């Protein structure tokens, strides 16, 4: 469904991605493991059109989306939930969610249907729908960010560090929601530093270091790999 071939991304003289080739098949939940600065966010920015590749291709359902506008990529079915949430803190929860559906704004009936589904998935957001998003807890704000991404009607959902800065119990809740989203048919590409928790819900994983893929495999392979355990799990 989503495939990158030889993706290279430069920031001036710095090469953030160096020939990345990865894929996510329909219905998969694939994890990108890596430390800060490894290239995970740059990878997602390239897929979502916010950064232009210096070289390589990004294929989504047999169409090359490299170089398309971000709005066109969302319309095609690839939606990015960024690191750090990037909410509008003074706007209400409801308005933040509706912004996720902006490219589909003509279809008001479907937008309301998905909004209702988001509120069903996150009841606390319905309760706080008229509150300023910035007044919510960190975990609740992450729910808004994920809900906003779902409003874009993703076939492929890019989730960049959704557990960052959250308490362990909230991390478990958020990852449980991500698993449910995937179980309902959405392909998920998840960037995470919390390797152990992420691998519990993943089918496959890639390890990225200095903009290069250095390892890949299924969940069991990476969970039992000594290098992965020492570098990312701490055991």
TrEMBL record:
Residue ranges of the ABC transporter domain? 2-235
What keywords were assigned to this record?
Amino-acid transport, ATP-binding, Nucleotide-binding, Transport
Database matches in SMART domains: AAA
On whether Nucleotide-binding is a keyword of this UniProt record, the answer is: yes
Instruction: State whether keyword Transport applies.
Output: yes
Question: What's a Pfam family this protein contains?
Answer: ABC_tran
- Annotated family: Belongs to the ABC transporter superfamily.
Recorded protein name is ABC transporter ATP-binding protein
């Amino acid at each position: 469904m989503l495939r990158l071939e030889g993706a290279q991304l430069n920031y001036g003289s710095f090469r953030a991605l160096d020939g990345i080739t990865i894929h996510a098949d329909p219905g998969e939940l694939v994890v990108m493991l890596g430390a800060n600065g490894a290239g995970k966010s740059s990878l997602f920015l390239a897929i979502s059109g916010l950064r232009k590749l210096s070289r390589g291709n990004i294929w989504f359902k047999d169409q090359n989306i490299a170089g398309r506008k971000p709005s066109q990529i969302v319309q095609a079915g690839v939606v990015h939930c960024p690191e750090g949430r990037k909410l509008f803190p003074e706007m209400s929860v409801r308005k933040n969610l509706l912004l996720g559906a902006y490219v589909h704004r003509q279809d008001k009936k479907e937008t309301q249907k998905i909004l209702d589904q988001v509120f069903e998935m996150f009841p606390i957001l319905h309760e706080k729908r008229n509150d300023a998003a910035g007044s919510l807890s960190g975990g609740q704000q992450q729910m808004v960010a994920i809900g906003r991404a779902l409003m874009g009607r993703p076939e492929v959902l890019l989730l960049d560090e959704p557990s960052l800065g959250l308490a362990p119990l909230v991390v478990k809740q958020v990852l449980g929601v991500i698993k449910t989203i995937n179980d309902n048919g959405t392909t998920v590409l998840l960037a995470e530093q919390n390797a152990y928790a992420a691998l519990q819900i993943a089918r496959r994983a890639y390890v990225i270091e200095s903009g290069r893929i250095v390892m890949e495999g299924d969940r069991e392979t990476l969970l039992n790999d000594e290098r992965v355990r020492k570098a990312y799990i701490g055991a």
